[in-house]
Amino acid sequence: MSQLRVDLPGEPPEANKRLRRAAQRLTRPVEAFLAAETAGGVLLMLAAAIALIWANSPWKESYQHLWHTPLGFGAANHELVKPLHFWINDGLMTIFFLLAGLEIKRELVQGELSDLRRAALPVLAAVGGMVVPALIFLAFNGGGAASDGWGVPMATDIAFAVGVLSLMGSRVPSSMRILLLALAIIDDLGAILIIALFYSSSIDPFGISIIVAGLMVMLLWVRFGVRPGLAYAVPLVILWSGLHIAGIHPTLAGVIVGLATPVRPWLSRDQFAGVAEESLGKFKERTKGTFDPHQIVDPLRRLAVAGREAISPVVRLETDLHPWVAYLIMPLFALANAGVDMGGVDISVPGATTVLLGVGLGLAIGKPLGVMLLTWIGVRLGWCTLPRGLSWSSILIVGVVAGIGFTMSIFIADLAYAARPDFGDLSKLAILAATAAAGVVGLGLGHFLLRPPENDVSPSHAEQSTEL
């Protein structure tokens, strides 16, 4: 991840040096924490723990009351007022899905999924990691009242999973991290398709017409060369509104915009170098002697635009959105959704045991089993090969860590059991238990089955090896 703060020489003209340096000493540990790979996962776990404690404390009524607080806006005779929980799950999570769409687009065009031969292994691993957990869930709940939750144990949480791998340090080869990331991205794509196809209500034709309008605006933006930025909020809002009216989960608007974002930069390296040289030349020329500051606005602005457009729009948006998603949106989602009132969970209701077993075993057992099974079949049939540096022990650890479902699993549970909140709470309990088990078992297997490189003796080397 890029630095959270850009270092410039000297101090801002208006700043008090002592106060600024004191503030930097206080914020430096926070910046160092946020720059670590594990930071997003730690905040996610912390938010989930706070939610559980709060929901089971003497102040649990305030927890429920907070998320049911009505918020909205309106104009004339039209208004949209929804609980705070809706604005987090259906509003802020659109940005989460936008980031997922950007990651999928980059991988499909330039990453591991751009080459069929290289993509075969993570595709097979992801498919196995989705199908087997669903089958295990249906083995316990097929045909019953809880059968709609078959999609809950199919998802992998990228932040948690990558965080667990990073805790293993230099034991984890880069090919193992790449496999997990590619698997998780395909997993996200599968979860997105499941939400769109199976967890949306009846379709409203008027909403479809708004979706079509949003797609047309998106297409026009791309064809006219409108560069990604605030302008892309226009089709995003139109698509979100159309999906919401149509009865399709509105967060999918983020995926659509992410997939439509250009993946190649406007300027090549040579073109950027030429613009930078010309702009800096004009800057030096216009700042000789006494100069008018207004005269340097244009070359500096051109240099800034060129710097922005020398980076792929997908990479730029990923970099800009990742801190907001990892450090705000996902922890806020966990805080709003992981607070299960243990005293309110009734395991005596018909189907409770099978929901717990279906979700828990689907994630904890189904994920590694599915990943190992389809990967082994693919290698045996010659569809793919294990990357250099990976063994079957590595594949097992990836499968176990992929059992960390959390964010997307909780998201699907809320959709699947909107009419049965008791089953939803049971699913969340199973998700939290399976996530904890997968993390602990994954770390244990990593300690016993993976060996650090023989020449890895310095802390700096270990730190470098854990960078994505």
Explain the overall architecture.
With 468 residues, the chain is mostly helical. The protein folds into 3 domains: 38-199 and 313-451, Up-down Bundle (Na+/H+ antiporter like fold), CATH 1.20.1530; 201-248; 270-304. It is built from 18 helices and 2 strands. The chain has helices spanning 17-35, 39-55, 60-67, 84-109, 116-141, 158-167, 174-198, 205-223, 233-246, 252-260, 269-286, 297-309, 313-337, 352-380, 392-401, 406-416, 421-449, 459-465, and strands at 70-75, 78-83. Strands 1-2 form a two-stranded antiparallel sheet. Helix 5 (116-141) packs antiparallel against helix 14, helix 9 packs antiparallel against helix 10 and helix 16 runs antiparallel to helix 17. It starts with 16 loop residues before the first helix and ends with a helix. 40% of the residues are buried.
Which key features would you list for this structure?
2 strands, two-stranded antiparallel ribbon, 3 domains, mainly alpha, 468 residues, single chain, disordered C terminus
Count every beta strand, where a strand is a DSSP E run of 2 or more residues.
Answer: 2
- CATH homologous group name of the largest domain: Na+/H+ antiporter like domain
Decide which structural class fits the backbone. mainly alpha
**Mean pLDDT value:** 83
Q: How would you spell out the order of helices and strands?
A: HHHEEHHHHHHHHHHHHHHH
Summarize the topology.
Elements: H1 17-35, H2 39-55, H3 60-67, E1 70-75, E2 78-83, H4 84-109, H5 116-141, H6 158-167, H7 174-198, H8 205-223, H9 233-246, H10 252-260, H11 269-286, H12 297-309, H13 313-337, H14 352-380, H15 392-401, H16 406-416, H17 421-449, H18 459-465
Antiparallel strand pairs: 1-2
Helix pairs in contact: 2-6, 2-13, 4-7, 4-10, 4-13, 5-7, 5-14, 6-7, 6-17, 8-9, 9-10, 11-12, 14-15, 14-17, 15-17, 16-17
